Amino acid sequence: MTKTYTPPQESIERQWYIVDAADQRLGRLASEIAKVLRGKHKATFTPNVDTGDFVVVVNAEKVTVTGKKRHEKFYRRHSGRPGGMKSETFAQLQTRIPERIIEQAVKGMLPKNALGRKLFTKLKVYAGPDHPHQAQGPQPLTITTIPGGSQ
């Protein structure tokens, strides 16, 4: 009978990666980030253990989408009060809070449980090119998907 390998917590090595989101497609970028946060790129991946790495995303304001999604994709939130539904398009949210676009895309690709909430805390998103994580020595993470998209 085979048993699932569970790596001990002290043997899990945490890396810091930095991703430049300028001219990257939103969905393709988010799926690569979710894969690194989850730890699926490692040989010691275990589905129920946090084996992932930290990811710092810069230039979130320059992420792109294809087709008409810039004006037709809606982001909704609710205050919890009656009639408290607010919605805005991708373009409106990108001018107001560009970090939230990438955060919501990645969060939707993580598990919907306590592990997913823990993994989400290892994602750091910044609108511009500056970030306060230089001391961790983040390595550049190259996204090998197709860049760009129509405006």
From TrEMBL:
Q: From which domain of life does this come?
A: Bacteria
| InterPro entries, per database record | Ribosomal_uL13, Ribosomal_uL13_bac-type, Ribosomal_uL13_CS, Ribosomal_uL13_sf
UniProt-listed CDD domains: Ribosomal_L13
Q: Give the PROSITE patterns listed for this entry.
A: RIBOSOMAL_L13 (PS00783)
Q: Which UniProt keywords apply?
A: Ribonucleoprotein, Ribosomal protein
Q: Name one GO biological process term.
A: negative regulation of translation
Q: Where is the composition biased (Polar residues)?
A: 136-151
Q: Which GO molecular function entries does the Swiss-Prot or TrEMBL record give?
A: mRNA binding; structural constituent of ribosome
GO cellular component labels: cytosolic large ribosomal subunit
Residue segments, region Disordered: 129-151
Under the heading Gene3D superfamilies, the entry gives: Ribosomal protein L13
Q: What does this protein do?
A: This protein is one of the early assembly proteins of the 50S ribosomal subunit, although it is not seen to bind rRNA by itself. It is important during the early stages of 50S assembly.
Q: Write out the similarity annotation.
A: Belongs to the universal ribosomal protein uL13 family.
How it assembles, according to the record, is:
Part of the 50S ribosomal subunit.
What protein name is recorded for this chain?
Large ribosomal subunit protein uL13
Q: Which species?
A: Halomicronema hongdechloris C2206
